[in-house]
What we know:
Layout: E1 4-9, H1 15-22, E2 30-35, H2 37-45, E3 51-55, E4 66-75, E5 82-86, E6 95-98, H3 103-115, E7 122-126, E8 138-143, H4 145-150, E9 156-159, H5 160-168, E10 172-179, H6 185-199, H7 202-207, H8 216-223, E11 225-227, H9 230-242, E12 252-255
Parallel strand pairs: 1-2, 1-3, 6-7, 6-8, 7-12
Antiparallel strand pairs: 3-10, 4-10, 4-11, 5-8, 5-9
Helix pairs in contact: 1-6, 3-5
Amino acid sequence: xxxxxxxxxNYLNTRPLxxxxxxxxVVNDIELTGDYPANVARMLLEGKIDMGLVPVAVIPxxxxxxxxxxYCIGCDGPVASVCLFSEVxxxxxxxxxxxxxxxxxxxxxxxxxxDHWKIQPRLVDTRSDFRDDIKGTTAGVVIGDRxxxxxxxxxxxxxxxxxxxxxxxxxxxxxxWVSNKQLPAEFIxxxxxxxxxxxxxxPSVVATTPYPTFDLHAYYxxxxxxxxxxxxxxxxxxxxxxxxxxxxxxxAPQHK
Length: 256
C-alpha cells in the first residue's frame, strides 16, 4: 500500500501529537514531513501531501477538504504562543508586523485589531525574522516557539486566544488535520487513536523535550487544548465566515 503523505508543524505544540504518532503502528503507513504552518498549508494546496496539520485559514482555498480526527491545535482562552507583542499599550500601536509563518494567526490578528481592540494600525507582511523590529510604536504578531521566547522580552503581551474568547465567548482552532481528498476510514481511525495516545501521555512528552523557556506541562495542559469538540467546530465556522470580509486583506508591502 502506498504511504499517505502527512505534513506536520515543527513547533513545540505538536510534540504530543507527534509522540503519539511515532509510538503507533500508523507511523508505518505514513510519510511524515515537518515544516512551519504556512509551508505545510502550501504543500497541501499543491497536492504534495495528502493531509496536514494546517492553519485553518487555508480551508477556503482548497478545492476539496476533509477535517479529520477529534484533535487539533486549539485553545479555550489564553494560548501563550500566539500573541501581539508591543512596547506600548495596544491603543498606542501604529504599525503591526505580521508573522509570515501562519495565515490563521495573521487573519485572527486582523479580526481582533478591527473588531476587538478597534484600532487601525498599518499592517506589514514579513518574510523573515522581524522580532528585533518590535520597538516603539511598532508591534508584532509572533507565533509558535518564538512567541514563547518573546514573552520574556516584550512589555505588553496581548494573547490572541484570550482576546478571541473575550470577543466571542468561544474557543479557537489554529490548526486541524485537513486532507485534500477522502482518506481510508481505517487509516483515520488509527491516526485518531495515535493522536489520543499522545495527548494522554503529556508527562512522557515533557520528559523528552527539555525547554527551560516555558513550562511545557502547563503549556500542554492549560494553554493548548487538543480536543476538536463541538464548541471548537462552532468557533471554526465563525472564524471562516469572517475570512471573507475584504478589509482583512489590506496590508502594506512585505517587510525585509
